[in-house]
Design brief:
- The chain is mainly alpha-helical.
- It contains 6 helices and 2 strands, in the order ααββαααα.
- Helices cover about 35% and strands about 5% of the residues.
- It starts with 9 loop residues before the first helix and ends in a 42-residue tail after the last helix.
């Protein structure tokens, strides 16, 4: 099920085809591997007031930060990947499919993407929070497509500023991931 008239982007289609072809055990292994590929949160976000970036529907504390550069979106997340590898994995998978693409790519992700990826794994209790994260990404993409500035460091906004409001720093050890890189090409 897809909400827009646009065709399913190849990057998203590849992810769905890959996960449809995997057995339950292979999916679990893939999720563990992806959880290690979540791009680390840039330092510039460490002291940002996170209130508007937190996804409250998710049981796991996760903050999602959007950036728009030259008409292309890039997302970062702050999450404790060790404590929540499934959440980190889903974010790494989605970010790998949509980062550095126009907002239309994010908007073309089917609303049931999480269900399709997680099918047969037995993690249905996580679906609502994971889907809420996807809906947050789509909200950011709609805002970007409408020409609104995104995030604290909106690169395309005339009023972009590198100084962010300070807040108390998180002491729960959350960060993007340990590998320092995005998912491999083609995923």
């Amino acid at each position: 099920m897809q909400n827009s008239a646009a065709p399913l982007p190849p990057t998203v289609d590849r992810v769905l085809k890959l996960f449809r072809a995997l057995s339950r055990e292979e999916k679990m292994t893939a999720l563990v591997q992806y959880s290690k590929k979540l791009e680390p949160l840039p330092e510039r976000y460490r002291d940002v007031d996170r209130a508007s970036f937190t996804v409250p529907e998710c049981n796991t504390r996760v903050d999602i930060f959007p950036e728009l550069h030259d008409g292309k979106l890039h997302f970062y997340a702050d999450i404790n990947a060790r404590q929540s590898p499934t959440v980190a994995a889903v974010l790494a998978i989605v970010f790998g499919a949509v980062n550095d693409h126009p907002p239309a790519t994010t908007l073309a992700i089917p609303d049931d993407f999480v269900r399709q990826v997680m099918e047969s794994i037995g993690l249905g209790t996580r679906e609502a929070g994971l889907t809420a994260m996807l809906m947050r990404l789509k909200r950011y993409a709609r805002e970007a497509a409408a020409g609104h500035a995104l995030g604290v460091f909106a690169a395309d906004a005339a009023s972009a500023s590198a100084s962010a409001p300070a807040s108390s720093e998180s002491d729960d050890g959350r960060s993007g991931g340990s590998s320092g890189g995005p998912p491999p090409p083609g995923i």
